[in-house]
Amino acid sequence: MSAITPLHSAPPARPAARIPLDHDGPLARAALWASRRIYGKALDPVRAALHHGPVLVGTLVLEAAASRWKKLSPTQSALATMVVAQEIGCSWCIDFGYWEHHHRGVDPRKLEAIGQWRSSEVYSPLEKAVLEYSVAATQTPSAVTDEMVARLREDLSDAQVVELAALVSLENHRSRTNAGLGLSSQGFKDDCDVPLSQQR
């Protein structure tokens, strides 16, 4: 009797998070209901933060405040956060960030090329300066130079430079927290109109 080859191979199993993500109780039910209603899925970072109420509340307050930062263009914000997630190696943040910025109208080619931003021709000189600053600010110790900031200030206001610095810091917080807890991509990218794996 010969083995039957399945028509579709099963997707690879996601690595397990380093802490349990299952919760019960009124707060968990409310938080996960809200997450599913907004994003279509229960976000793993929310599920992880449910272990520590003050961390969950503080994170939600910070994210709500950051959602009102609008000095930078959507593309500049996307590049700053995506390249930080790439540098740190947070697959959850890369996956969710692609989905989030794709739905905000950011050119998918610019999201796809993040891993090769230095050699890619899809970025303007200013966008490359934003990427360079974001990578330098993520290094330990910081590798930001006066020249980098001076280059940004040729095209950005001081308020925009401050917002960029804060976004890089916020994404470091997100990516390092999620990567440290072992959170991996939840397949948000696959829900985009043009999935990353199909772009060329």
Mean of the pLDDT scores? 90
Total separate domains = 2
CATH level 1 name of the largest domain: Mainly Alpha
Total strands: the figure is 0
* Structural class determined from secondary elements: mainly alpha
Rough outline: globular
Q: Major sheet: size, sense and barrel closure?
A: none
> What radius of gyration results from the CA coordinates?
19 Å
CATH architecture of the largest domain: Up-down Bundle
The CATH topology of the largest domain corresponds to AhpD-like
How far the N terminus sits from the C terminus, by CA atoms, comes to 42 Å
Compute the number of helices: 9
Q: SSE order in H/E notation?
A: HHHHHHHHH
Question: CATH H-level name of the largest domain... which superfamily?
Answer: AhpD-like
Low-confidence stretches: 193-200
Helix content: 55-70%
User: Strand fraction band?
Assistant: under 5%
